[in-house]
Amino acid sequence: GVAVPVAVNFFPPLVGDVGLPSRIFDALARHDLPGDSLIIEITEDLLLDNIDRTRNVLEALRERNIHIALDDFGSGYSALTYLRKLPIDEVKVDHDLIGHVLTDPRADAIVRAVVDLARVLNVRTVAEGVENAEIAAYLRDCGCEVAQGIYYSAPVTADVIINLIAAPAAW
């Protein structure tokens, strides 16, 4: 009863399965959920078997308002190709880069470049692994749109999330 999108990590070769969209659509229909309640996350550190077939699968998902996220951005080698060839809605910048932005000029430069590139591509940026107020402020200043990590909350159960959403003043 609470409208909160859920992100689900998918093994990249599975995303190339042309039958995947219909299985996902059926599951959403069974639970009476809209497409925009789901974010499919694929990691960039694993190579896709067939990028054209994968693009077709992801485009079919996006036609139903399911969002596509490129997870762990900056941890692998194929990310820029994925950004060019796949319909990506969101880039999740890997926690290893985020954790070093204040102490490593190269991490700082990479994160700023990723945020700027995402903005030009009309892709939302999500910073993973934000651990303190200084990094959170840095990300706001960079223009990163979403951040997640223990600075905001330790992992909690679904019941706790529902209570937090129901009473945001308690945050």
Task: Give the topology.
Blueprint: E1 6-10, H1 12-15, H2 20-30, E2 38-43, H3 51-63, E3 67-73, H4 79-85, E4 90-93, H5 95-98, H6 105-121, E5 124-127, H7 133-142, E6 146-147, H8 158-166
Parallel strand pairs: 1-2, 2-3, 3-4, 4-5, 5-6
Helix pairs in contact: 2-3
Structural write-up:
The chain has a 6-stranded parallel β-sheet. The model has no long low-confidence stretch (mean pLDDT 89). The protein has 8 helices and 6 strands. β3, α4 (79-85) and β4 form a beta-alpha-beta unit. α2 (20-30) runs parallel beside α3 (51-63). By secondary structure, it is of the alpha/beta class. It has helices spanning 12-15, 20-30, 51-63, 79-85, 95-98, 105-121, 133-142, 158-166, and strands spanning 6-10, 38-43, 67-73, 90-93, 124-127, 146-147. It is globular and about 45 Å long.
What class do helices, strands and sheet pairing give? Answer: alpha/beta
The number of helical segments is: 8
- The mean pLDDT is 89
Measured distance between first and last alpha carbons: 20 Å
Largest sheet: number of strands, sense, barrel closure: 6 strands, parallel
Oligomerization: single chain
> Element order, helices and strands?
EHHEHEHEHHEHEH
Q: How many E strands?
A: 6
Rounded to an integer in angstroms, the radius of gyration calculated over CA atoms is 17 Å
